[in-house]
Amino acid sequence: MTTKNPSKSLAAEPLPEPITPIIGPLLALLRSRKFLVALATLIINVVIAYVPELEAVQTELLTIFTLIGSVLVGAIAYEDGQKQAHQ
């Protein structure tokens, strides 16, 4: 039985060196918080658009979830900018 070390952070480990110029940027994109929020927003919007029971409030839900996703992406970009400014 192994136990996890609670002092280890959940940060992503560095990528191994021999990564091709095409795969490396794609892997970096998949690890991006902004990309993950945008992808989740897109998936939620597609689900809302294709669920017939939500037709009565479809426009409002699409607007709300798109707004929330956009604000989250903006907040993450602001946070990243502040980190860069203080380095």
Question: Secondary-structure map with pairings?
Answer:
Elements: H1 23-30, H2 33-50, H3 58-85
Helix pairs in contact: 2-3
Describe what this molecule looks like in 3D:
The protein is mostly helical. The chain has a domain at 32-85. Helices cover 62% and strands 0% of the residues.
Distance between the termini: 41 Å
Strand count, sense and barrel status of the largest sheet are: none
Give the rounded overall mean pLDDT.
85
* SSE pattern, N- to C-terminal: HHH
Beta-strand fraction estimate: under 5%
**Rg computed from alpha carbons, rounded to a whole number of angstroms:** 18 Å
Total number of helices:
3
Looking at this protein, list some descriptive labels.
mainly alpha; 3 helices
